[in-house]
Amino acid sequence: MLLFSNICSANQEVNKSDLILNEVNQISKNIRCLVCRNETVESSNSQFAIDVRRMIKAKLLEGKNKDYIYKFLQSRYGDYILFEPPIQINTLMLWLMPFFCLLFGLMFFIFKYVKLRRK
Amino acid sequence: MIYEFGHLLLIFALFFSFCAFFPFGLNIVNFCEKNLLIIRKISNLNFLFVLTSFLILEYGFINSEFSLNLIANNSHTTKPMIYKVSGLWGNHEGSLLLWILILTLFTFLFSINKNIPKNNFFSNILGIQNIIIFFFLLFILFLSNPFQRSSNPPLEGLGLNPLLQDPGLAFHPPLLYVGYVGLSLSFSFAVASLITKNLNQNWVIYLRPWTLFSWCFLSLGIALGSWWAYYELGWGGWWFWDPVENASLMPWLIATALIHSINVAEKKQNFMNWTILLAILGFSFSLLGTFIVRSGLLTSVHAFASDPYRGIFILIILGLSTGIPLLIYSFRNTQKNVKYFLFSRETALLLNNLFLVIATITILIGTLYPLVLELINNSKISIGPTYYNRTFAPILIPFILLMAIAPFLSWGKSGIKILLNKLLIFSGLTLIGIIIFYFLKPSSIFAIICGSLSISLFISVSLECFNKLNSNKRNLSITKRLKSLPKNFFGMIFAHLGVAVFLAGVTGEQFFKEEIEKKINLNDKFKLGKYEILFSKINDVNGPNFLSKSAEFNVYSKGKFIKTIISEKRFYPVERNQTTEAGILNSFLGDIYIVFGKGNLNTGWTVRAYLNPLVSWIWYGVALMALGGFISIIQIIRKKKIEN
């Protein structure tokens, strides 16, 4: 029985550390390795990337969540470190323009047909 | 001495392309056969000059002539021959020479073409090609001369970036450049038509095969680049939304729109203005791509040397070649109002163009926004895949649905009843397909959407084939019925099937992927999907110009041995650089992809493994698209032969 429970807990521990490793990977996919060229912290093997991954792991073990980690990194290194630009004043146009274009295009299309119909 | 000759030939080519301006100008005012003959002679001669110059530089690379700065900086005597040869275009100056070579090649091929009538329109196209050649020769001679000698040549070269030392380098840039540069001809067609005020559809017939040709090569070039990134970078992905990838995707999207709008222009005398605009934009985006790669404004895995003057020069070319034609364009608006109906092939193709252009603009925004923002208020942001995934999906979903439905619509006006009938069968079958797909347990709503789009396209293509074969001449045999089908049908079917296969690949890779990262030691086992993988061996291997640690992994499925995967970590002593060579077990239904990381015998090694279902379908899909393009070209050529 004792043996069994031992195996169980060992298993659980492995699972837990695997889960955290997985989460670290997921989070670091969205973080730029600042010393590399257009590479994510997840794919990079630079010292910077290793440090950031270690930091994420530590924060996760402290019980902090993904958003907190992103905020933390952003305040420390600036917006540049996040691959997913946060929605804020200087990125508002970035997020809105494609949708305006789509809207504008569809309006152009409808307008054209209305015009043709009238003729 | 021979290299000075190569240099001289480029100067000659510059001089001759300048000389071509005069007969070209005279021909605009008053067309004369003699002037045209001069332009054609110059075009042919320039090709010969640039080709010879290119071969001389290649000779230098093969013989490791380190007195040339370019070769000393980018080559090494121990490099395998294939990388000595392809190393020519693994750098800024050489790749620019390749670019010009292909530009003159296209001009030469066009100049000796027998099918196109030799009138002032033809003369204008060749004239404009020569202007482009002139500017690029100016650029190479004054700002990036490959034949520059050094006063004290080194004994050994600096070598080539190890990431580029791969067979991919031999094929990816030339294919891509053929695509980029081929669009220059579409551009010249459009500008020539603006100059001659020849806005009827006659010239579109000649434009089509050239555009298709460059589109096919662009597709293959991009796909090959993506495949190369997949196996070489060791990041497990196949598309990174890197600025340089975007730079090649933008002209591709525009060229795709152009092919479709030419289709309408050829059949219905409609969309002429639109076609001209797209043809101009296609080449502008090619130039923009070159500008992005060459200027070093945006950092990426592709960036070679960065020199601000080079960037400015290309920006000037870009401004001139886009600005002037667009200016003429705005004055030459002769829109013919041809009537068309809502439920028609024309409408579908108009929407297709609209979506493709919006997609291009979205990428353009994503690529240039960080740059503009940095200029305005000095703040830096990064734009990664999430941005593109979110902005692309709303465009892609209606676009693919439209693509599935469009073949059911007919030119002019579709019968509503027949259309409804077809749509009903189509949606029924698609629904069944989606339900079957649901049993594969897709992980998220996006997986369902992406998979459903692929399924709907598959069904649309097969229904279309079935309808076409079933509709007329039932008494004939299958082969005869196949022969009686409209000529551009097969091209379209293959290309659309390609998109379906591509989307299936994307669905598999994006949503059914499994990945793990583990620290393991020799003889440890780990599980990946239904496979068990054993880390069995580690060796030191010496390559021709690298030292490698290679790890062997045995793959088992249900206890049965399947194959050994070898994953390497290479060190290139000359370049002092390390690369990871991912070990890949490729199969039709998916890849096992293993990257071997840091570690030693005591602590074990970090190993990252991916299971990528259907990933190779992504490249098969693009290959099918290109195949569709080639089939269309062959059919156009055949048709012309029959007509002659």
Structure report:
The complex is a heterodimer of chains A (119) and B (644). By secondary structure, chain A is mostly helical. Chain A folds into two domains: 2-86, Cytochrome C biogenesis protein (Helicase, Ruva Protein, domain 3, Orthogonal Bundle); 87-119. Chain A has helices spanning 2-28, 47-61, 66-77, 92-118. Mean pLDDT of chain A is 78; it is low at 1-14. Chain B has four domains: 1-162, Four Helix Bundle (Hemerythrin (Met), subunit A), CATH 1.20.120; 166-333 and 341-409, no CATH class; 415-512 and 620-644, no CATH class; 514-613. Chain B contains 19 helices and nine strands. Chain B has a five-stranded antiparallel beta sheet with strand order 2-3-4-5-6, with no helix packed on it. In chain B, a hairpin with a 3-residue loop joins strand 8 and strand 9 (604-613). Chain B is globular, with a radius of gyration of 27 Å. The mean pLDDT of chain B is 88. Classes of the chains: A mainly alpha (119), B alpha+beta (644). At the A-B interface, helix 1 and helix 4 of A face helix 13, helix 14 and strand 1 of B.
Give a topology summary.
The complex is a heterodimer of chains A (119) and B (644).
Chain A: H1 2-28, H2 47-61, H3 66-77, H4 92-118
Helix pairs in contact in A: 1-2
Chain B: H1 2-19, H2 21-29, H3 33-62, H4 69-74, H5 81-86, H6 92-111, H7 120-143, H8 167-195, H9 204-232, H10 243-268, H11 272-295, H12 308-331, H13 345-377, H14 385-405, H15 416-438, H16 445-471, H17 478-483, H18 489-511, E1 514-520, E2 525-528, E3 531-542, E4 547-557, E5 560-572, E6 577-581, E7 583-587, E8 590-600, E9 604-613, H19 615-643
Antiparallel strand pairs in B: 1-9, 2-3, 3-4, 4-5, 5-6, 7-8, 8-9
